[in-house]
Specification:
557 residues, alpha/beta, Rossmann fold, six-stranded mixed beta sheet
Length: 557
Amino acid sequence: MNIGYLAQIPDYKSLTVREVLKTAFGKLIQTELRLQEMEHEMAQEFTPIDLQRLMDEYGILQDEFILNGGYEMEAQLDRIASGLNITHLLEQTFAALSGGEKTKVGLGLSLLRNPDLLLLDEPTNHLDLEAIEWLGYLNDYKGTIILISHDRYFLDEVVTKVLEMEDGEVQLFHTNFSGYVKEKEEKLLREFQEYQEQQRKIKKMKEAIKRLRDWANRSNPPSAALHKRATNMQRALDRIEKLDRPKIDVKKMAIDFDAGDRSGKDVIVLEGVSKSCGTRNLFNEVNMLVQFKERTAIVGDNGTGKSTLLKMILKEVGTDRGVIKVGSNVKMGYLSQHVFQDFADEQVIDVFRSEVVVNEREARHILAKFLFYGPAVFRKVNQLSGGERMRLRLAQLMYQDINLLILDEPTNHLDIDSCEVLEEALEQFNGTILAVSHDRYFLNKIFTKTYWLQNGRLHHFEGNYDWAKGKLAQSVSKPIVSKVVIDKTIPPKATKVGKTKTEEIERKIEQIESDISDLKQRLEKESELELLQKIFQEIEVRESERDQLYALLDEVV
C-alpha cells in the first residue's frame, strides 16, 4: 500500500515550489523523458524491423503514460496550487517559505501523489478560509483518508466515520461529526438508563438477601432453607457483570469572563487607515467601527494583513496613513496565536502570576479550572503544547479587568471540547469582542458583524461569516462606485413594517437563546436520566424554533 503523510515534508533546499510539487510525478516524468529519447532515436536511420520494434515499444509506453495521466500533470498541479492559493509561490524556492506556506505545499504534494492511504494531521491549521473550503475536494478522493482535526465544519464536510479516543479506548461511529455528537449523546443516555436499571436491580437483590438472612436467623431453629435461598441469590448477584457508570461530566475548562467597567459606545474607530509592508500594499484607506458589546470578526486570506490590523489597534505597529481611535475606558485583553514566546524557561504558575496578583494556593486553584492539575503548574512553558499555552493565556485573561477581548485565531490549538467551552464563555461575556479567525463554526456561532479584508479593501457586513460570504460573492461582479472606507454590502434597510417585524423576531431569538442557556446549565447539574432526557428534548425543540426564526429573519431582511 502506498501511504502519504502530510508531516513528512523533506527539506527541498534549492528546488522551487513548482519543482517540489512535480516530484509527485517522479515515475511519469521518467516515462516522459524516455518517450522524448525514443522520439529522438526514431529520427535516426534504422532497418524497417528495428524501427517497427522501436515504434511498438514507444506505443506501449505512450499508452501507459496516457493511462496514468501523463498529459494531465500540469493541469493537476495548477488545480491543486490554485485551490490551496499557492500559485503565486510556484517560482519561489521552498527554503524561503514560511512554516504555514511549507505546510500548504506539503499538503499539495500529498494530494498530487494520490496515495492509497492519505494521513492528515490537522490539515486546516495553517490554511486560510478559501483553502479550507476548497479542501472539500477530498470528498472526491479515490483513496482512503485518515485525518485528525478539530475543525468541526471540515469534519462534517469530509468524514464518513469518526473514531473517538477517550480514556484509553476507541469507539467507532459511522457518521460525520454532527452525527457523532448526536449518537454519542443518545449512547450516553442509553448507557445511563441501563446503569440505573442495573443499580435498581442490584439494590433489590441486596435487600432481598438481607431480608432472607434476617428471617432465617429469627426462626427457631434457624431456617436452613432460607439461608440456602439467600446464598443462591448472593451467588447470582456476584455473577452479574457490573456496568460502569457512564461519564457524563467530562473534564472541561471552566471559563467565566467577567467584563470590567463598561467602555464608551465607540470602542475602536479606524478612519482612512493604510499600511504597506515593504513594496507590498496590505490595505488602503480602510475604515472600521466597533461598538460596545458587539461581536466583530475580521476574516480574509492569509497574508492580507488581518493580524497586522490587530497589532495596529494594540499600538504594536504604526499606520502609514489614517487614524486609529480607542474609545474611553477601554481595557483590552489580547490573545495572540504566538503566545508566551518570551517565557520559554519559566514555570506555568509563575507566568500566570506575572499578570494575575494572587497567592500560590489561589493560583493553583485557578489553573486547575484550566486543566493544569498538581505538578503540571510547575512545568516549563516551552514544554507546553499550543493548546496548553492557549489555556494558560485564557486563564490570565479571565482574571484581568478587561472589557474588550482581542483574539487572534483563538481556536487554532484547542480541542473540540475546549472550543465549545470558550464559545459558551464568549457568549456570556458582557463586553466587546474583536477576533481574527479561520474557524467557520466559531465565526458563525459567535459573531454578528464581519469585516472581510480582500484586495486591500475592508468590506463590511452586518451578519455572520456565512451571511458575509454570500453577500461578498454577490458584490464581486458589481462596479465599485468609489474608494470608500466601508463597502456598503450590508443587508438592505427594511421598511418600517419590516423593521418592526425584524425586531420582534430578534427579540424572540434572544429569548430562546436565553432559554437554551438556562436548560444547558440545568443539564450540567442534573443526574436523573428521565430529567436528562426531558431537558435534551426541550433543548432540541428550542433550537429547532430558533433555527426556524433565523430562516424567517433571512426572508424578512
